[in-house]
Automatic annotation (TrEMBL):
Pfam family, one: HicB_lk_antitox
Organism, scientific name: Candidatus Uhrbacteria bacterium RIFCSPLOWO2_01_FULL_47_24
The name this protein goes by in its record: HicB-like antitoxin of toxin-antitoxin system domain-containing protein
Transmembrane segments: none
Signal peptide: none
Domain HicB-like antitoxin of toxin-antitoxin system: 9-76
SUPFAM superfamilies named in the record: TTHA1013/TTHA0281-like
Source superkingdom: Bacteria
Database matches in Gene3D superfamilies: 3.30.160.250
């Protein structure tokens, strides 16, 4: 019997102009989703991560891309930058 492993991913979340929550996973190229509520977003991002990992198991090129991009990003912060135009 195979036991399930739990993996932890950092997810970047923002709220779009339309009010939807948007998330992407820097460690998994192409892994992004949205949700009308924060709770829906979290459920959707878990599903998106699972789907990306399933695709990686079946697609050698994507699996290689994941291995190349695999890193644990460290959150530094958010900075507002003033620009004269």
């Amino acid at each position: 019997m195979q036991t399930e492993q739990v993996h932890h991913y950092k997810v970047l979340i923002e709220r779009g102009q339309d009010g939807f929550f948007i998330a992407w996973v820097p460690a998994i190229p192409g892994c992004h989703t949205q949700g009308k509520t924060y709770e829906e977003l979290i459920a959707n991002v878990k599903e998106a991560i699972q789907l990306c990992l399933e695709v990686a198991n079946d697609t050698p090129d994507y699996k290689k891309k994941l291995a190349e991009a695999a890193y644990a990003p460290t959150f530094i912060g958010i900075e507002e930058v003033a620009v004269r135009v």
